[in-house]
Amino acid sequence: MPFNLPGVLVPFHLIINPRLVVPCIVVKDIRQLDFPALYKAGYRGAVFDKDNCLTIPHEDRLVPELVDAWRECRETFGPDNVLIVSNTAGSHLDVGELEAESVSHHLSAPVLRHPSLKPSYACIKSIRAYFSSLPRPVKNEELVVVGDRLLTDVVMANRMSRRAPHPPPMSNGEASEKTPLVEKDDFPRPGRVGPLAVWTEGLWKRENLALRALERGLLKGAERWVLKPQEAAWRESLQYRFVKPVPAAEEVAQVKEGWIRKLLRRIRD
Fold it and tell me: Could you tell me which residues come within 8 angstroms of residue 268 by beta carbon, excluding any fewer than 6 positions away?
């Protein structure tokens, strides 16, 4: 695993702004994301991490279980609007860009070339430059950023946000005409505008477990002590709108696996 100075410095930034580690949405993997619903809501592009999000770590092929979801994502946003941003493939560590070419070939998606690792501001600048160069440029607030690491992928997505501009004042007559009715599950978004940060908490291969435990601890602390009720309600509404339930086959497989483990434990005892 390469040394990631921008990632090492993140905990110090969290002292100032602990909300950076909080994702908007939490899913097991990308099969739970409702891509058509995201597009309908105004999202026009997506940024994906590679390892343990789309592929097994250090491999270039898509995890077979994700084939249908990945196809739906690319068909929904368009092939050029789905970008892979990895701290290995396409980074300065990728000599000759050989890994980036291999990943792009196997996943049928562009891989960002960037000089600095996530979640650095230099990497964010490269992402913005890519989406600004498209025939139909994609703004930060039109992006979905998906990854399995809180201290890199989620922090990077939240760093791309900005303070929401205040709407111009309106008279009472204008307000009654222009203000739409708010649905029951449509909570007002907190006062920042930026990408939708999605955390995939499932692992295709167990690695860096101590660091992931630290990330979970930081997230629980931020959720408990920092988030306001309005922010928690907004996140809950996003889960309702954009997250599909875990496939039934997955749940059955988990139950069966649990019974097998219990049986093996009894035999050993």
Answer: none
